Amino acid sequence: MRKFEFHPRRAWRALWSPSPPPIVDAPAAEMPASELKAAYVAFVDQIKTELPHEAAMEQAIGAGFDEFGRIQLALLRRFGLRPEDYLIDVGCGSGRLAKPLASYLTGPYLGFDLVPDLVDHARKVAARPDWRFEVIDHIAIPEADGRADMVCFFSVLTHLLHEQSFWYLQEASRVLKPGGKIVFSFLEFLEPGHMPIFWATVRTAKARAPAPLNVFIDRQGIRRWADAIGLEVREVWIGGEQLVPEGILGQSLCVLEKPA
Q1: What is the pLDDT of residues 25-56, one digit of tens each?
Q2: Tens digit of each residue's pLDDT (9 = 90 or more) over 110-120
Q3: What's the CA gap between 69 and 63, in Å, rounded?
Q4: SS3 state of residue 13
Q5: 232-237 sheet: strands from edge to edge
Q6: Nearest-5° angle of CA 226, CA 179, CA 176?
Q7: pTM, 2 dp
Q8: What is the homologous superfamily of the domain 9-15+37-146+155-257 according to CATH?
Q9: Per-domain residue ranges for the chain?
Q10: CA distance 240 to 6
Q11: Phi then psi for 3, rounded to 5 degrees?
């Protein structure tokens, strides 16, 4: 398998001299409900008019609900998720990961999303009254500092502006314990299989048709973000690689670690 490694940290520090300036945080409460939320609520509402409720909730986050849920769980286990860990699932959607996770994770779980209908469905399919499911209105992780063992973002940063993705990674670092990990999927031009998504996005833009964002992230950008936040880049995998027997995710993957 082709594993793409970054250069050692000291080399990247030389490339990115001078050091990134301090990031000044604005209180999350000052950010109103975003246009992003309105767009996704409208998107789900439209699907609900076309399909039965159960099918609409699954289709709203893409095809292969059960298949990709199993792949996501297998990937998190590969990257170190233990049954007793506390996992935060950013953009939990309608429970694609939460459903198979419910029979593996004995520890705490927090899943949240912008769309109330999706969160309600995730809560239902997980059937874990001890777990937290929440609806959010802005970019924030509703948890105190230093609590989680792992934070995951599957098909989340793929639909955010770069500044929003960076903000979310800051939030993930804040809620992680020392030694905790962030796992996120992303789109990149390095992966030929991602190019059809880009061309489709171009066609959609030219047609001025409403659709969720599709955003590509480059690896140098990931490195710079990690340096600015104080995270270590542990692994980066291209989207076409099969990392677990359950199948191929399709999106590229990055694992960041908060220093112990």
Answers
A1: 444 433 344 577 888 888 899 999 999 999 99
A2: 999 999 999 99
A3: 11
A4: helix
A5: 132-135, 109-113, 87-90, 148-153, 176-186, 252-257, 232-237
A6: 70
A7: 0.85
A8: Vaccinia Virus protein VP39 (3.40.50.150)
A9: 9-15+37-146+155-257
A10: 18
A11: -100, 125
